[in-house]
Amino acid sequence: MVTATAPEYGAFSFIDSPALVETLGRSGLEWVCLDAQHGRWDDRSILAALDLLGPSATGRDGAARVLVRPRAADFGLIGRALDAGAAGVIVPMVDGVEDARRVIGASYYPPLGHRSFGPIRSPFGAADDVAAANGGIVVALMIETPGALAEVDEIAALDGVDMLFVGPFDLSASLGTTVDALLDDDSEGNPLSRVAAASRAAGIRFGAFAGRPDRAPRFVDHGADFVSVSSDLDLLGLGAATALGSL
Ligand code: 3PY
Ligand code: MG
Fold first, then answer.
1. Domain named HpcH/HpaI aldolase/citrate lyase: which ranges (predicted)?
2. C-alpha torsion angle, residues 143, 40, 21, 62 (rounded to 10)
3. Contacts (Cβ under 8 Å, ≥6 apart) of 81
4. Of 164, 186, 216, 247, which has the fewest CB atoms closer than 10 Å, so is most exposed?
5. pLDDT value, residue 4
6. Over the stretch 120-132, which tens digit does the pLDDT of each residue have?
7. Domain parsing of the chain, residue ranges
């Protein structure tokens, strides 16, 4: 379970390169998320990256924790990412409390859930220690649909939810607005405040995909404490431009 509240900054990885994740993980970022929903990661490349990183994927030796965003809120995909050794999952398109319960069921061994046992590489959950597995992982549920927003308090209160993670692009599109308008909205009961309040009340983290470094502090101002500041693709472009600019 996650207990700290200081902002943790991380990045999404879209390019399916284990070596690149290792480099990102040693950059000072606190977490990296392998994105199998929109990025190029798949079952095989996730296994290759987590095999390369081994226990350091949990952040044990000062490297970034490595999480996985599965393609969907799917029992098999969530279990496979955790079996492979991911430190946790950021699950997309959770559309309400029923979906959230299914994610909890897939992520945790009994009694909290009904994850199927078979950790081939998992740093949590040696054969005799399912409690360590249940206690070690991070389970983040993406809030990015009106259905999730409507039930955000119930979702946050579920046992096993460690974080609500806002996907501002899907959320703003589905609400008929834009990411910047969401960030500018300080009206009573605005969407980001509702997620912040639900997280606070449940004592869990509030994560967000800022996409760009300049948006990260704006999410922190709204109460987010787990923020994706960039991606491997954007950082590569930024690094090249910075190198050229310094000539
Ligand atoms: C969103 O903003 O919808 C996301 O899922 C970010 O990856
Ligand atoms: Mg999304």
1. 10-235
2. 20
3. 36, 46, 68, 70, 89
4. 247
5. 45
6. 777 665 556 788 8
7. 8-245
Q: Taking the mean position of all CA atoms in its chain, how far away is CA 158?
A: 17
> What ipTM did this prediction achieve?
0.99
User: Distance between CA atoms of 225 and 207, rounded to whole angstroms?
Assistant: 6
Whether 13 contacts 234, CB under 8 Å:
no
User: Cα of 92 to ligand 2 centre, how many Å?
Assistant: 6
Check if 75 has its Cβ closer than 6 Å to any atom of ligand 1. no
Q: Rounded to whole angstroms, how far apart are CA atoms 211 and 167? A: 10
CB 64 within 8 A of CB 29: yes
User: Distance between CA atoms of 30 and 24, rounded to whole angstroms?
Assistant: 10
Distances (CA, A) of 220 to 156, 193, 208, 209: 19, 11, 9, 11
Tell me how crowded residue 247 is: count the other CB atoms within 10 A of its CB: 4
Q: Which tens digit of pLDDT belongs to each residue from 167-213?
A: 999 999 999 999 999 999 999 999 999 999 999 999 999 999 998 99
Active site annotation includes 222: no
Tracing tokens 């693709």 back to the chain, one arrives at 233
Ligand 1 test: best mutation among 40, 149, 170, most atoms within 8 Å of CB?
A: 170
